[in-house]
Design goal:
27% helix; two-stranded antiparallel ribbon; alpha/beta; 5-stranded mixed barrel; globular
């Protein structure tokens, strides 16, 4: 298989790059290597939706892939998904895309700027409706995510986004990756490791190194299982 691995930062996929024998090039960059029978291209896009969407779209337009894998860390809204947990994101959305109306928020679908089932959306979400069948992937909980420009760290806004969308995790890139894959028709998987709970910013409680290590162990074993 020819596989594209996408991450916001090189640090998030450092163990995978080591396992595939790739240099830790600065983002954005595409570096190629091999793992078993697979050709692996690793793309570090830079942080955020704009960088991820642009570089994923450019890369997927230039090269066809059998599978694209988005790896990264995330924050968890769900107490059953503590730091160190691995998740398979199958539903994602951008909760900030819309308009304020006083104390209310209107999504782009509420505004009738886009139908809820207009491609690539399904029910107002970006959905991986046909994830690949894989025994390792099947061990991970399938979760609903949101992708944000501003990571949540204020109790009132956390409560509001919970009540509006009931997300389990959040990242700053996932929906952009999924959008690019859906548009290009590329099979994809989004796997994330929880680095922190979504709460008032508390870096002392983060387990970033543990999350990256768990993500690296899983991703290499996942590639070997394909």
């Amino acid at each position: 298989m020819r596989i594209l691995v996408v991450a916001a930062t090189v640090a998030e996929i450092g163990p995978l790059l080591d396992g595939v024998g790739l240099a830790h090039a600065a983002a954005p960059a595409v570096a190629g290597g091999r793992r078993g029978a697979h050709t692996i291209d690793a793309l570090a896009t830079g942080v955020g939706m704009l960088a991820t969407g642009t570089w994923c779209g450019r890369t997927l337009a230039q090269q066809s892939y059998d599978l694209a894998i988005n790896l990264g860390v995330c924050g968890s809204f769900d107490p059953e998904l503590p730091p160190g947990s691995l998740v398979h994101v199958v539903v994602d959305r951008v909760p900030e895309l819309g308009a304020e109306d006083g104390d209310s928020f209107l999504t782009i679908h509420d505004l009738q700027l886009l139908d809820e089932d207009e491609f690539p959306y399904a029910g107002g979400n970006l959905v991986n409706e046909s994830p690949i069948e894989n025994p390792m992937l099947a061990t991970l909980p399938e979760v609903t995510a949101i992708t944000v420009n501003t990571a949540h760290g204020h109790e009132p806004t956390i409560d509001r986004v919970r009540s509006r969308f009931a997300p389990q995790v959040e990242s700053m890139e996932g929906a952009a990756f999924m959008y690019a894959c859906l548009v290009s028709g590329t099979p994809f998987v989004q796997v994330r490791a929880v680095s922190n709970m979504v709460e008032r910013r508390n870096r002392a409680a983060w387990k970033l190194a543990d999350a990256v290590r768990s993500l690296g162990d899983f991703s290499l074993a996942f590639l070997d299982s394909l």
